[in-house]
Design brief:
583 residues; mainly alpha; Serine Threonine Protein Phosphatase 5, Tetratricopeptide repeat; two-stranded antiparallel ribbon; globular
Length: 583
């Protein structure tokens, strides 16, 4: 075996394409380029770093096939959680059915391949003899991407080896143990500090070059994750050694606040609370969308497409939102449905949507919403689609609650093959929510903090402000052993970010799967549809698709399933890695 290949194998870092043919083994680490003829001019660094942009989503074809977990073409980021499911596959991890041979699609070896490529770039940047400003953007992006790849390793595996150089045959790291998770988090945050220092400060177009603010958004996300993980997993097999959650929570709040204070981003709002949230997502070009911090520009000619995004959002596409999500939307008086006199009950989806936070009807289809708008001015309403629910496989749904969010009714843009609807992958709303949650968890949240974060989100949809000390008790809070303000901040995060691939991370970092054990994802009342769903129902008549298959509901193993197992092949190569708890 070629020396380079042996190094990479020992480190769990197989080379590009996982090839093992003899001709591949003789190639230079840069594939088609060599050290002798590359990194000689500033443009070479940009060309090299461009490869990593593919990892942000444009080539993903499913909700779990890109490192961040979310497909650029579809809005199914929370599928297989308690708030969004599909009847095409089971939420195996939540059901406790994962095995040691399972793991995330973006696995240990994939991540370290990418880490090695970034390290190669950064090593060559230190050899650069020209003006640093000429390569500063590329170097900043390199630090961003190394942080991004390690962020996925941290989420999936916890403790992992930190490798910040290209290894040689004599590198002791080849047989080293894993570094503690907070060491990894510290290094990720440091990389993002460097990225923020080097990356351009302009907003840019949001789909090509990275900027400082996008790096700060990831830093806020990582720091909030680690801070809450260390807080809520303390004393468990997943707790961090020398935990210091407040350090990370303070960093999360500071990074988010820097974005907020920049004045470069704001919520998309036209003053119409009945449509502004919905219309945030369906621009045909998000360059000037004040809320879009990162988005994917589609181009069929380049094979970067949204697949059938609008076409599938127009029908259930075998996916559905759940009743546990629907019940989280407050009534328009600001009170939860369990106590508000405005709540109309759940006999129909229309009843459920009445007098509720406008984000309900801008996320879940209701019959009065425009379904299709034709070029000749004709309009069809969703009531026509509702009549067809459960009539065949195209109109099948596991819950009856169909997602409307990210839809655009203009038929000219729909395609049953490939289409170019752009997708926002990161937006300013997250910064507001990260700030509010970090301050809440620190115990330093003030009314002013709420007014510049969560209440800005509520203003867009004309909902009453969240006021400290005047929080209505909800007998059905999802986290009954936690404070009212933590429950309400988490509620706001869910209803604002649903389907954007945050739910599983949130439940895991909060150590919150214990609240779901024994429950199942429930749907709407079955008797309201023209066609019999033909699915099991609860005693109250709600669709209960997993009732017969999994009568005991979610059986997530809280002593094992918060992290994936280290792949067995990696343990053979380096037994010092050790295995995660429970596996």
């Amino acid at each position: 075996m070629n020396k380079l290949k042996l190094i990479i194998a020992l480190a769990g870092l197989s080379m590009i394409f996982h090839a093992c043919q003899d001709d591949f083994l003789d190639r230079n680490p840069l594939d088609e380029t060599t050290e002798a003829n590359f990194f000689k001019k500033p443009g070479d660094f940009i060309v090299y770093v461009n490869r990593f942009h593919l990892q942000l989503g444009p080539t993903a074809v499913g909700p779990s096939e890109s490192p961040h977990g979310r497909s650029p073409g579809h809005s199914w980021g929370d599928v297989q959680t308690d708030v969004q499911i599909t009847n095409n596959s089971l939420p195996e991890h939540f059901l406790g059915l994962s095995t040691i041979s399972d793991g995330p699609d973006y696995n240990f070896g994939d991540a370290y391949e990418d880490v090695r490529r970034v390290n190669y770039l950064l090593e060559h940047s230190r050899k650069w003899q020209g003006e640093f400003d000429d390569i500063k953007q590329a170097v900043g992006e390199g630090h961003y991407f190394r942080a991004f790849f390690y962020w996925n390793l941290l989420r999936n595996y916890g403790n992992v080896p930190w490798i910040d150089k290209v290894l040689t045959m004599n590198s002791p790291e080849l047989q080293g143990a894993r570094d503690p998770r907070n060491v990894i988090a510290d290094n990720i945050i440091a990389d993002l500090d460097t990225a923020a220092m080097y990356l351009m400060t302009e907003r840019g177009n949001g789909y090509s070059r990275l900027n400082k603010w996008y790096a700060l958004l990831l830093q806020s996300r990582v720091a909030l994750y680690e801070g809450t993980w260390e807080k809520y997993h303390a004393g468990t097999p997943f707790g961090a050694s020398n935990a210091n959650p407040d350090k990370y929570l303070s960093k999360a709040a500071a990074a988010a606040k820097e974005i907020m204070d920049s004045g470069l981003y704001s919520l998309h709002t036209t003053g119409n609370p009945e449509s502004d949230y919905y219309n945030t997502f369906n621009w045909r070009d998000h360059t000037n969308n004040p809320e879009a911090m990162r988005w994917i520009k589609m181009d069929v000619s380049l094979d970067i497409t949204a697949h059938r995004k609008l076409f599938t959002l127009a029908t259930p596409d075998s996916k559905g939102l759940t009743k546990s999500l629907v019940e989280q939307y407050l009534c328009t008086d600001g009170d939860p449905i369990a106590v508000s006199a405005l709540y109309q009950g759940d006999n129909t989806i229309e009843d459920e949507a009445t007098n509720r936070d406008p984000r309900f009807a801008q996320t879940v289809w209701t019959q009065g919403s425009v379904w299709y708008e034709y070029d000749d001015g004709r309009i069809e309403y969703y009531s026509k689609a509702f009549e067809r629910l459960f009539q065949d496989n195209i109109y099948a749904s596991p819950t009856g609650y169909q997602q409307r969010k990210e839809y655009l009714e203009l038929v000219r843009y729909h395609s049953s093959q490939e289409e170019e609807s752009p997708t926002v992958t990161s937006r300013y709303a997250e910064a507001l929510l990260n700030y509010a949650e970090a301050k809440t968890e620190l115990g330093s949240l003030t009314q002013e903090d709420l007014d510049i974060s969560i209440n800005v989100l509520r203003d867009r949809v004309a909902m009453p402000h969240l006021v400290l000390g005047v929080i209505t008790t909800d007998p059905n809070w999802q986290y009954p052993d936690l404070s009212p303000i933590i429950n309400e901040v988490r509620r706001e995060r869910l209803v604002e970010l649903v389907s954007e691939d945050f739910r599983q991370d949130d439940l895991f970092r909060w150590a919150a799967m214990k609240y779901l054990i024994g429950t199942r994802p429930i749907g709407a009342r079955a008797d309201q549809f023209n066609h019999d769903p033909g699915l099991p129902v609860t005693a109250d008549g709600n669709i209960d698709i997993f009732k017969n298959a999994f009568p005991n509901g979610y059986q997530f193993n809280v002593d094992r399933d918060y992290l994936w197992p280290i792949p067995e092949g990696e343990l053979i190569l380096n037994p010092n890695l050790g295995q995660n708890a429970g596996w």
